[in-house]
Here is the input.
Amino acid sequence: MRKIHRNICLWRLTIFYCMVMIATCVYAQDINVNKQKNLYVALGSADILDTYLSPFSYNGTHVAVSYENFKKNDYYDGILSFSKVTNPAGNVNEYAGDLRWRYAKLYDIFNKGDFSVKIGPMAVLDLGVLYNERNGNNPAQGRFSLMADFSSYAQYNLRIGKRKFPIRYLIDVPMIGAAFSPNYGQSYYEIFSMKKTDHNVVFAHVGNTPSLRHRLTFDVPTSKGSISLGYMGIYDQSLYNNLRYHSYSHNFIIGFSL
Amino acid sequence: MKKVRKILCCVFATVLMLSACVDEEIPNRNTPLGNFEALWQLMDQHYCFFDYKQKELGIDWNEIHDRYYKRITPYMNNEQLFEVLCAMLGELKDGHVNLGASFNYGRNWSFWEDYPENYHDSIARSYLGHDYYIASSLKYKILDDNVGYVRVESFSDAIGDGNISDMLTKLAICRGLIIDVRNNGGGQLTYAHKLASHFTNEKQHVGYVYHKTGKGHNDFSPMKSEYIEPAKGVRWQKKVVILTNRKCYSATNDFVKCMHTFPNVTLMGDKTGGGSGMPFTQEIPNGWSVRFSAVVFLDKDYQQIEFGIEPDITVMMNKADVLKGKDTLIEKARDFFKD
Here is the structure.
């Protein structure tokens, strides 16, 4: 019964969005594809594994707010995200917070008509924490990394009537950089109270950080800018100091131009 | 167009490469056998004392697996499973190894249960009387013979430099100081070290620390020296007697280790309980928590203190003294200052 109710709600939500789109399109202006500032809100699922805290994946909810600024070839965004996940047995929670800042210099490699593709290097600064509410001397895991990523941006302007509806896709893959990690059985007490480090700054590369983040949006022009709807996937993984980590999140996103 | 194709191929190749997932290593099977295997593997990969316990107790973790595996049946209930798993962990004779379920807490406390307690709560309290001072978790008083007596029941509560300095200022007129850490099961290492830092005038080398770096039983980091820096507040310069018993465990064991390196400190009483491994927490598929020693602390002579620290002067509680309401250890410590 609850499933049927949820489905009805989803249908209502979809119809509501469609109506908003149709209504806004009536007065819409074309989107300036070379200059964009957007604010996104994301809601989705999270799947987090950190073997420093637990051998098992925890599952739950992921929310994020992201600000994007795109000007010709310069792209940057900031993503603030939060997850609450629960262990498979359902008796322990973990809380994750993450702040990620990305800057990319993108160059046109293809630009013909309504389709364009850009690629370029991206610098990613990531700061995060994962807290397990039950653990004693290993209650949390800190994350800090500075990576050089490969990024690519593709845009296709779908034309319906005289209007343009940009479909945008952004992907980035970490290539090389440095990351913080405690050693396999090292306590934070050793690192911070005793100042005893042990391979805590790790050389990160595509082999030990096989991660990927991407976002697909469909932009609908409105009278004051645009509304974007789409998907954001963040698949972060790392294997540092024999500690295994992954954080997968699949999100529905809605964005507003600023 | 060819260029675009090339680049897209590269992107897809990268994506395919990334399909190698970093996933769970220990299978998440919530069955009696699945939980047993997960627990055994967790300990096998993370516990830091296998080598030492093999030498001291003759423990063979693989043999333990085979022995307890036979006791696992598919239809056993949670309590039966808990009993078998606790018995398996109990083989390690480590007070820091625990299994936590909602209905029970598995432990091996033989480090004090098998020995005389050498502490009588009401008698020890009679020395403090009712007019003692309290500075955070430190209770203290000047005894009739001008000996300072400090009772430290736990290192779980915060102790500040201000608390310790004020206490030592108050006790400055005493000819000696008794620090009674009997029955103190530990707490925060930080607070234990903070208290110890008020008893040295120099940076003191107190021991070594190392941790696991991989799954192998002997995958350890290099040993790193551990120091106590002198506190900036009031520092005690006279003689100190530390009273110990078998219940001095974990952070208290480490406090005793540190204090023992200072020249004006004498250990009196029974051997400490030990517990020199800093415990980490993990879990098994049914959600029970598993605690185990993960980081090793040695004394300054590279000696393990997992099974305790011997006192300089062994003193056991005398039954005749107990009947008279006297604490043999406190009385011996007072006599020590007379000498």
